[in-house]
Batch of 3 targets.
Target 1
Amino acid sequence: MFKLKPLAIAILTLASAQVMAAGNTATQIQLSGDGNDSTAMQTGISDGNTSTQVQAGDNNTANVRQLDVSTGNVAGQAQAGNGNTATIEQKWGAYYNEAAQAQTGNGNTATVDQHDEATANHVYQVQDGSANKAFAENAYVSTGNYATQLQSGTSHEAEIWQQWGEGNQALQVQDGDDHYAKVYQGADANSNISVQTQTGTSNTSTVNQLFSADGNYSEVTQNGVGAGNSALVEQNWGGGNVSVLDQDGDGNDAHVTQQHGDGNGSALTQAGNGNLASVSQHDGDGNQSALTQTGNYNSASVTQADGGWNVSSLSQSGNNHQATVTQGGGNSNELYFEQDDDGNVLTADQSGTDNLITGYSHGDDNVVDVDQVGSLNTAHVEQYSGSSENLADISQTGSDHVATVLQGGMGNEAFVTQTSTGNTAYVLQAGTNGTATIIQN
């Protein structure tokens, strides 16, 4: 949680401290009345300009334009009231500029536009109230820019666009309910960082790092004891990207997509009830997915297709989980799974050569279904620790496969089906009412 008041003093002091050189100064203060307009223009080749605008009331408009090869300029806007609009433009060869906007009230809009060869610029946007909107853009051959958005209250929208640039950073923090946060870093945008934190219920988070974007990092955290949070992370057409997604609460929904790239990594954690999670890594080699769910009624889906040397790690602790993992179209893929407690279901499919599935389901009424197609694949399933009424079904098509099933408890069943030659199957059951069937043809 962040403190917003006194809002205008804090944000304008932060902006003023960043002045790099002496220049022109514009100060506009409108403290009474509604529907006021305030405009400041500082253009041309200039350094160290400062523009400050303060408005109190409703439906006011504030505009600052610092353009044309400007360096070390500072723009600060503070508005208190409802339905206000604040806009700052720093572009066309802008370097080391600062833009700070603070709004308190409802239905306000804050916009910062820094683009066209903009380098090492900073954006600070702070809003307190409800139904406010914040938009920041660092784009078009922009490098090393920072955008920070802080919102407290309800029903806010925050967007940061950083594209066609490298080394940009986006930070969004929202405290309250029914917020929407989006970060877009794409189109030849490399080594960018996106961090989103949402506290409350019914919040939505979206991160897009797309189109020839390599080495990007995304971190999404959603905290709150309540239903309805959702998060979407897309890192496509690039390699070496990392996604870290953490949800704590009930009824959460999370989706991570990393496609058309090599060496991507996803770490997704959900703690709570009724969560849904999906990870899709397509058309790439050496991708890694780690998915952890703690709680009840969770569902997990991991797909790693059309690539090799991919690794998936799945851990579920709780009741009535469902998990589906698909690794296809490549070689040397690996799946490691853990399931604890009751009623878990795991379905795993692999196609290719030299793939591995290994793990355990400890608890009651678990079902493990493994299907491997190709050659030299290995499946190892354990159902121990007092487990009962478990079912393990392994199907291997092709040659030189190895299947192992270890079951402890009562009422367990094991089925192993292997086709072609050079296959090996081993089943061990400890307890009563177990059934073991091995078919090799």
Target 2
Amino acid sequence: MHVSRPAKKQRRRDKPVQQQDVADGSSSGVQCATVDGPRSPAESDMWPDLILESLERQGLLGNFVDAVTQGIHFSSDYSGIGTAEEAARCLCLAAEAATQRLCGKLPYLYVQRSGDKEAECRTVLLASSRKGGLGAPKCVFGDIGERCNKDIWNKVAEEIDRIHNSEVTSFCYKHGGQCPVYPVSLQSDDQDSGPAASACKEEAGCEGTSNQAGSPALKLHVAGFNCYDWSSMGSRRGWFGPSTLPFVQWLSERLQFEEDIVVGENTLNFDVATLEEMTAHQFDLECLNVSPTLMGEPVERRRLYICMLRKGKRRWRHELLRQGLGETWQEVFEAVFQRNIVMTAADKFRAPALGVKNYIAKLAEQQHLPEKTRSGKDWSCFQAVSRAVRNKIQAHQEELERKLLSADLDSGLAATADDPLELRHWTSNVAQQPHFMGPVRGNVPAMLQHTNLWIFGKRRLALPMEHLEIQGWNIYGNFDNPYRSNIFEVETECTAKWLVLSLLFYWLQQKMLQHEREAARLRAL
């Protein structure tokens, strides 16, 4: 994969950092905002206030206030550990002052249900549900496949297998975007409904669809539906992959449940044209290409957000296009929310020193190392990891030196891999090969799976909780910050911190160890 040279070295902390695309290192072209983004992690923690500030600056805050004071009935599928629910909670908290000032009312948020296929994610969702409070789901569902009629599910699965084994398979893979996918409902008239179908937490009112008929509240559904079959790093099987059946079930429910607004998230490769064709009679659909970099965060996670408005209930405000904010909704979104990046990549990793020390000690313990080095010092992170991980870190370090040397020759600037002012901009996913996904300048790649981030400016690996902070969770913020993610303070069978550590990342570490052992076994043959 070609990697273009990094931007020129930047010495001043208050100078906006050039944005980089994680995939190829090229400039993203979104560096023209007149407003700077957060300058510190503490300012980044206040992102809900920045969102409302952006709306008010463009005269749009009143619309948001009207919506949240009428109420939001929220549901989600493919919920993960509840990121969308957490964002809704924080935005409603931020809106309280504005709503009281503008209309004397308070925002209202009712999270009807969440759900996820992964048991680890459901554990976190259930803990949030038990604790209750703003943003907590009333009900937690399991695998969306459990809501499907099994006979129809099996028939469709057999049909997909038949297509895979047919002579036209290669044609379909090559031209999959042009192959028709029919919006059939996988539900049948005799299917169970309500808690008996797939609810993990059985409770009155725990149903698949909203029971708030006639309410003036905005009915909002959010889903980050499976992107493995669409991702360039996944299977690339499109509509012929295993995620199609759950997606069709999800889509059939959207056509049935009649939410006002549906927001779906996927990779940029997703076949939006087919989805738009399937829902043309029910929804007006628009797409936004968004990454946290747009809002001034040095974090890259470029995703496609599919916004569907129910016809006859909600409409796009086309007068905004006529007011000069932009010619497309993408341009309008950027005009409202775009901010310059000021923080460096290293700023996003703020685990307390004791937490870092304990994490490195745990790594050393896993390698059966003594508590201290021979000289009586604590182990460094580089020393505490396995030999295989050290080799990977070294390979990425050499790739960084190669990139810096190439940039120096072209620009005439002197930058070395030992320069702390330069290193604070660089991170690398050492779980990947350096020639495929090497060191990245400016923005941190925000992924959970197959990720082991090395922070060059801090000379250590990212802690598991720091990975979640990169995803947007406020874990290390001040305790008096209203937007601090309190789900990780829930007392369950084990503390929430170790819950996330052990459940979300343990299996990733085990997979990496298995790969290392297998490689060692093959070398020994």
Target 3
Amino acid sequence: MGRGDKRSKRGKIWRGSHGNTRPKAKKKQTTTTTTATTATAGN
């Protein structure tokens, strides 16, 4: 259990992999279309 263990969180950080122990952070979706339409409507 340590850096070489691919099942532990520390091992996944060391290897740079993801899984159940270390899930990837999901990117937040930004809504750029609503801000663009309101900016053009005001002009």
